[in-house]
Amino acid sequence: MxxxxxxxxxHIQPACLITGASGGIGLALAHQAAAAGRNLALVARSxxxxxxxxxxxxxxxxxxxxxxxxxxxxxxxPQQLARALERLGVEVEILLNxxxxxxxxxxxxxxxxxxxxxxxLNISALTAMxxxxxxxxxxxxxxxxxxxxxxxxxxxxVGLACYAASKAYVLSLSEALAExxxxxxxxxxxxxxxxxxxxxxxxxxxxxQQLRIPAAxxxxxxxxxxxAWAALEAGQAVITPGLLNQAAVLASRATPKWLxxxxxxxxxxxxx
Length: 272
Description:
Layout: E1 2-3, E2 13-19, H1 24-35, E3 40-44, H2 47-61, E4 65-69, H3 77-88, E5 90-97, H4 112-140, E6 143-148, H5 161-180, E7 186-191, H6 199-207, H7 221-234, E8 238-239, H8 243-254, H9 257-269
Parallel strand pairs: 2-3, 2-5, 3-4, 5-6, 6-7, 7-8
Antiparallel strand pairs: 1-4
Helix pairs in contact: 1-2, 1-7, 3-4, 4-5
C-alpha cells in the first residue's frame, strides 16, 4: 500500500475509488474518471500493476492517484480499505464497484471453492463496500456509485449459473438503492455490459475451447466505459451499453420466463 511521490496527506482529498482497476472495464473507467479531472484511488490485488497504471494516469491527466493492493474477497477487506484511505486523507466521492470474477462451465464441474469465490467477491465484497462507503456519502449529501453487473443479470445463463445469479443480485440491489437514495444527493447506477474484451473473457475462452464468441458481439472496454461514465454523471439507474445488448434485454423481459430458460439451455449446453 503506497502513495505516489509528491502527494500530501495534510488535506482531505476527494477521489473516485475504483475496484478491479488493473485491467478491462476497471482500467477503462479509470481513464474516463481521470479525463474528467477526478483524483483516483485504485484497488486490485497486484500492487506493481496498479503503481504502473497510477503513474501513467498521473502523468497523462495530472490527477492525484493512490494505490491500495488488496484482495477484496478476504473477510474484512473493505473495512481495511476504508481505514487505509482514511490514513491517506482520501474521501470517496465516487465509488465504482468493478471487481468481479467469472467461471464458465457446467455447475458440477466447477469446484465448490470456486463457486464460493464468485459469491465472496461479486456479492459479499460488493455489499460490504456499499456498507462502508454509502453512509458517508449520504451524510455529506453527495456522491455517486456504480456497481458493475452484467447483461447476464437479466436471465439465467446455462454455463454461467453462479456468475449470472451473482450479477442478478448486483442489479437488484443497485436498483433498490437507487430508489432508496432518490433525493439524497447520492445516485446509484448499475452497469450491465454485454460480452466485453477483458481478461475475464479471455480466461473463460482459454479454459473452454468450445466457447466460441463472434467478434461482432464483443465490445471494447473503452466504449463501454465511455457510456458508463456518461450514465454515472447523469445519475442513470441502469445502463446497458450497445444497441444489440439493449435489444437482448428488452427481448428477455418481454419473453415468458419458461421460454427464456429453454433458449438459454439450448445455447448454453453447447458450450459446456
